[in-house]
Write a structure and sequence with these properties.
Number of domains: 1
Strand order of the largest sheet: 1-2-3
Number of helices: 3
Radius of gyration: 16 Å
CATH class: Alpha Beta
Largest sheet: 3 strands, mixed
Order of helices and strands: HEEHEH
CATH superfamily: Fe-S cluster assembly (FSCA)
Helix content: 25-40%
Strand content: 15-25%
CATH topology: GMP Synthetase, Chain A, domain 3
């Protein structure tokens, strides 16, 4: 038995069904916005398109962040990479949502 925990794609899909387009009020899964969903060595890779190329950037960012947050809750997920395609600010949204977290602060050591 491997020590690496397998990621269940169906569980990831269930988590993504919770993501709602804030402007339209419908789950993104019901609107068929996800173009690619796969797992590579514990990393979930999601590619999707916004409802329009000019979807307000704040909504595109919220959808991307929600996808990442919910997908990370599936068992065995080590990381999530979310990419929006065809949006006029796709590069900025993708850069923001996939930036690495800040390094953890180490407590000061007594002298």
């Amino acid at each position: 038995m491997s020590a690496v925990e397998e990621v269940d794609l169906k569980e990831v899909q269930k988590q993504l069904a919770k993501v709602v387009d804030p402007e339209i009020g419908m789950p993104i899964v019901e609107m068929n916005l996800i173009d690619k969903l796969e797992v590579q060595d514990g990393t979930v890779v999601i590619e999707y398109h916004a409802t329009t190329p000019y979807c307000p950037p704040i909504f595109a960012l919220k959808i991307s962040q929600d996808m990442k947050t919910y997908a990370q809750q599936a068992k065995g997920v080590k990381d999530v990479k979310v990419t929006v395609k065809g949006h006029y600010l796709a590069d900025a949204v993708n850069k923001q949502v996939n930036k690495p977290p800040p390094p953890a602060q180490q407590p000061a050591q007594p002298q």
